[in-house]
Amino acid sequence: MSKVIRLGTRDSELALWQANTVKDQLQALGHIVKLVPVKSTGDLVLDKPLYELGITGIFTKTLDVAMLNGDIDIAVHSMKDVPTALPKGIVKAAVLKRGNYMDIMAFKDNEEFLGSRNAVIATGSLRRQAQWLNRYPTHTIVDLRGNVNSRLDKLYNNEWNGAIFAAAGLDRIGLEPENTIGLTWMLPAPAQGAIMVVAMEDDEEIREACAQLNHEETDTCVTLEREFLRELEGGCSAPIGALSYINKENIVTLKGVLLNVDGSKKLEAELTAPLGKHKNLGIDCAKSILARGGKRLMTELANAGFEINIFSTKKLTPPQQLLLNISVNADSDDFIKISSNRISPIVLKKKHKNVVFTSKNAVEAVLTSSSAVELDFENIYCVGRKTRRFIKNKFGKVTHYENNAKDLANHLVEFIDGSEVTYFHGNLSLDELPSILEENNITVNAIEAYRTKLSGKSIPETVKGIMFYSPSNVESFLKENSADKVAYCIGETTAKAAREHFKEVKVAKIPTVESVIDLVNQDYKD
Questions:
Q1: Are residues 353 and 485 in the same domain?
Q2: In angstroms, rounded to a whole number, what is the distance separating the alpha carbons of residues 468 and 515?
Q3: Which of 248, 297, 437, 501 has its CA 20 to 30 A from that of 139?
Q4: Residue 83 and residue 56: Cα distance in Å, rounded?
Q5: Which CB contacts under 8 angstroms, 24+ apart, belong to 393-401?
Q6: Residue-range definition of the domain harbouring residue 116
Q7: Residue 476 pLDDT > 70, yes or no?
Q8: Each residue's pLDDT tens digit, 47-100
Q9: Residue 411 · residue 400 · CB < 8 Å
């Protein structure tokens, strides 16, 4: 080809290394290549807004604009920085053989911080941050920006324990520090370590020249990784990792991971297929993650900058979080802390004809002092389905249960065998049940099995609704917050306590956390 190929490049050391690598390979094939320095995007003239052309990548748009303007013929990028949707008119022309895809940890002195509860790690990548915190949840992450050289300088000039880099970037410019650890457990960014050449779609001559550089195995693997990323609809704002490889038996493997920013939630998938039947691995891997909570997690990531509108006074589990409608941007924390009391073995080893529990906490407290097989409880009465389920699992039987303490007390008055009960309770339990029983000449032997400590905190003013699970939750919440919200209550006993302070109180149909979530979803429909 007689035409000179104009290769656009930025002026960073890594960008120049990549540009010269492509230049050398093209020249080895007999092509004439000229490097063209490209100015910043703001200096380039374009007659259409960038968004209309699909130009989004912060590290690639300068070269995209230059190519669309006709100033250059091809551009070279670190493929992990290239958006999954290229600008209109620009296409992938080649993918070079992949370099080192791993992340590495550079550190200053020694590796002792890996075993320490407190350490400071620098990275500007949400993916690296999330995976590091998933493995080391007590460590602190600080932001790290700039080119490779400046980031290393910042590591050595700050009181940080280490910083995370792409191994390929350091390898390519010969800057790998003396002290490094390969993070083999950390999934890289999709297409990390690969170099991509792009050209104009309508320039067949240039595309044919670049096609000679294409490395098929790398192209196959990074395409699957990018399809995984695209299916999840994640970019720089989502902690997503992916790695594909082909073994000697031509089996293609794809591993993918999605996390939240603090690493407390992690969804993984791994699929394999023979080469030739691998084309859907990226999409199938993403769909597997989406089906197991990934859709909700992506919504949470998208809503991270939005205001919290619902707060739960009990920490919600990941499966419970997934039940909330997308329009609910919820936060949660435990507003009460439970500690079991030591109950005398003399008391527990006695035969108890009628035992009453009004909470699962009381059952758990009793079982911390004695095993179920050592207890002689003839009849067990309780409040709540979860308490009943827990007792049946531990003791194998429940004589009778009701959804609230008042109904259980009335049942005992009517049907109890005998005139005495042993009532295991907490320090803040209501007097309703024992009062009704004693008014009807039933002796109540009350044993404080656990203590409840109110540990509420101030919540954001943007919150419109509060999820409550006990009168103690209500009391704890009001220590730091006002009652100008909607109270979503797990049962009538909790609702009664809430009505003393809240104007609008709603009660779940059944006394479970999931039912309270249903109550919230009715008001926050997607």
A1: no
A2: 12
A3: 297
A4: 7
A5: 394/363, 394/367
A6: 103-182
A7: yes
A8: 443 334 333 444 467 788 888 889 999 999 989 888 888 888 999 999 999 999
A9: yes
Q: What is the mean pLDDT of residues 500-522?
A: 94
Per-residue pLDDT tens over the stretch 385-419: 889 999 999 999 999 999 889 999 999 999 998 89
The CATH code of the domain that includes 76 is 3.40.190.10
Q: 363 and 244: one domain?
A: no
Buried b (16+ CB within 10 A) or exposed e, 41-76: beebeeeeeeeebebbbebbbbbbbbbbeebbbbbb
* Host H or E run for residue 338: strand 336-340
Please indicate whether residue 81 is annotated as part of the active site: yes
Whether residues 252 and 300 share a domain: the answer is yes
Digit-coded pLDDT (tens) for 319-356: 788 788 878 888 899 998 889 999 999 999 899 999 99
Final residue in a domain of this structure, among 429, 454, 479: 454
Half-sphere exposure of 131 (CA within 13 A, CB side): 25
Is residue 187 included in any domain, yes or no? no
Residues 89 and 210 in one domain: yes
**Do 89 and 202 meet the contact criterion of CB atoms below 8 Å apart?**
yes
164: exposed, middle or buried (Cβ count in 10 Å: 0-12, 13-18, 19+): buried
- Determine the 3-state secondary structure of 439 from DSSP: helix
Closest listed residue to residue 234, CA positions, set 298, 303, 285, 166: 298
Mean pLDDT, the chain, whole residue set:
89
- From the candidates 71, 81, 171, 518, which is the catalytic residue? 81
> Of 292, 296, 290, 330, which is closest to residue 314 (Cα–Cα)?
330
In angstroms, the Cα distances linking 258 to 146, 170, 293, 309 are: 25, 26, 10, 25
Kindly give the residue spans of alpha helices, DSSP state H, lying in 359-501. 360-369, 385-395, 405-415, 432-439, 471-478, 492-499
Question: Residue 399 sits in a domain of what CATH number?
Answer: 3.40.50.10090
CA separation for the pair 112, 358 (Å, rounded): 49
**Could you say which of 432, 454, 476 is where a domain stops?**
454
Please tell me the pTM assigned to this model. Answer: 0.59
